[in-house]
Structures are given as C-alpha cells and as structure tokens.
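Re: weekly structure request thread

Next one in the queue (408 aa):
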Amino acid sequence: MVGFAVVSFVPTFYAIDMGLGLAVVGAVFMFGRFFDVFTDPLIGALSDRTGGRRGPRVPWMLVSFPGVLLFTWLLLSPPDSIGPVYLFCVVSGYLLFVTAFDVPYSSIGLEISPNVHERSVLAGTKAIFQILGALVASLVPVIIGAQMGVSLGTVALVFMMATPVAMVAFLIWTPQNTYRVAQPHPSLWGAWRNCLRQSAFRKLMIAFFAVQAANAMTVGLLVLFATHVLQAQALVGQMFLMLLLATAFFVPVWILLSRKIGKRRTWMSAILICAVVLAASYSVGAGDTLLMQAICVGLGACMTCDAVLPTSMLADIVAQDETDSGHPRAASYLALKNAASKMAFVAPMGVAFPILGLTGFDKSGANAPETFGVLLFFFAGLPCLLRIAVAAYLWRKLEDRVVDAPAT
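Done, posted below.
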C-alpha cells in the first residue's frame, strides 16, 4: 500500500503541493533508485551471513522495523514547511530501512517450502496482496475526497496501525527454515560471485531484466499513449485500474497452468501472448476505448505472470544451491534480482523519454505522425520485440529440470 503511494503520489505531492519543483524531486527519486541498486545486494549478502536462534532473516526485520515505521510516517506526513534536504534525508532513510526489512522478508518466501508448485502459490499469493494494497492506496483519495496531503496522511495512519499487527502475526505463525551451515562463510564478494556463477540464475536474470524493461516502457508511456493516441486523458485512471484488476484476477490462472505444463513453458506463453496484445496497440486510434480497455486487461494478465513465475523459478534455483552449499543464499539471489528489476524500470526515463524529447514530442500539444511512430515504437514495438527475443532465449537456454524439479 505504501509502496504504491510512494511511486504514484508522493513525487507529485512534493513537487507541486510542497513546492519543491519537478527537477529537485525527480533528482532525489532517481538517486534513490540507484541507491537501492547498491544497498539491495549488500543487505542480501549480510542477511545470508547472519546467525542466531531465529535464523538469518528475522533479526534484520526486527532491527529495521522501527526505521520503516518512522521514515514512512515522515515521508507521507511531512511538516508544513520543508526543503530539498528534508526530502533527500527522508527518502534515503525510507529506502534503506525498507530494503533492510523487505529483502530478508521476501527471502523467506523463497525458502519456506520444498515443494515446487507451492513456491508458485506463495509467490502468487504475495503478488495478490501487493495488488490489493495498491488498490487500497489508489482508492483512498477517492473515498475520503480530500487533498493529496490528507490522503497520504491517511495511508500513513492505516500503515502505522496495521503493520505492527501484521508483524506480530508473522512472528507467531511463519515457520523458519533451518540450515546445515558449512564453514566458513564466503566473503561478501564471494557470495555475489557464487550466485552469478550459477548458469540457470544468469539465464533467468537476463530474461527477467529484458521483460521488466519492456513492461517499464509500456506502463511508463501508458499515460502519453492514452492522451495522444487514444485521445482520452480522462480515462487514464480507468486504464490503470483495469490493468491492476486483471493482474490480480489472473494470478491463479498462471499458477494452475504452470502445474500442468511447467513454469518455463507457462512464462513463455504469457510472454508471447503479451507480444500479440502489444501488437494490437498499432490498431488503436482516437476514441477506440473498448480496444484499449481490452489491451489493458491483456497487459495486466500477462504482467502478473512476469512477476510470479520468475520468483517461483528463482526459489527452485535457490533451493538446489542451498542444498549443495549448506549456506542460506536466498537473500543474495533475491537482492540481485531486485537490483536487476530496479535498473530495468529506469528504461522509460533513460531511453524512451530522452529520444521522444529529441524527436520534438510535445506532451501538451499536437505532434507530427512520425513522432507518434516513435511513441508507438517505445510503447509497443520495442517491448514486443524484446518479448519475442526473450521467449526464444528461454526456449533454447533454460532447461525445465532446473526450475521444475520434482516436488517433495
């Protein structure tokens, strides 16, 4: 819930309502994205090396939990008069403590079950609750009918009341994995190198990065596409809502299909279906609302598979490596995956937006047909090509036995 609010509402709130300006806020959040790329692998490796009665994950969660509460409140309920230094410090603290909490927490999801299919169920269940949280955050401004500052304060208040209850429930009922730890632990660099040496992990990350970059370009340009191609700016919120709902609805579909035909083949199917959906974008014109709604449903349906099955496949890889090594390594693997995901989501800002700017694209006015062609290429054409290439790569390079070992 908070993560969606931070991505969707907080930058605009600080830039416009708090008066810091788009350039300052954009620079702070871009720094935060790159900051995460370095802190994720570091915290992942340190978590894997942590000992104690509660295992390598819970100590990190307990230590970072107060910081998560504090900086979430400071970020969503700032004082009336702040400057760029306040935003920089609060964003940095928020990202650091959330990373220190979330990487160990999410690692438990990779480790908690030895059953291949159940790993997909766990990943899918987590995805559904993430989507529900995003929906709640998106509906708060509508339900209370208040300004963005009040809405964000409401989200913060709900978070402060609900999260301690969830934390207690987690500590009471979530089982912990136990390890046959071999000594000595590898160095931090050695831990990352051991992960990157795994051929299956490297192949999975190449495919995951390319698909996430494709998704980032499509989602990042959806507003511009709906505004200038569909010419229905008022329907942008509806488009995102349909995409989110389709994402939640199709989680069980992909999980059941993966049990029938395997995770790799299921993900390839979703990748190719999404390529077909993206190709249909070239048929959208002004006022083609029904076609655009169908495209948003198709995108949401496929993107949920992009999130759930790579995580489940990673759990299979981690389980085998931890069995062979005797060391907990889930956090290191997951942190490297998170870093790849965050770098992929820089694609719209680092590639598409600058090239659109060079072609003279006007966000508020008329554009030449060739400029619309560039927008279509980054919204649908390039993502479609990336997906076809990834499907071919998965077919040739990743073996089923690596990510669909027999359930135990």
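The domain at 199-397 is CATH 1.20.1250.20 (Growth Hormone; Chain: A;). The chain has two domains: 1-175, 199-397.
Next request, please.
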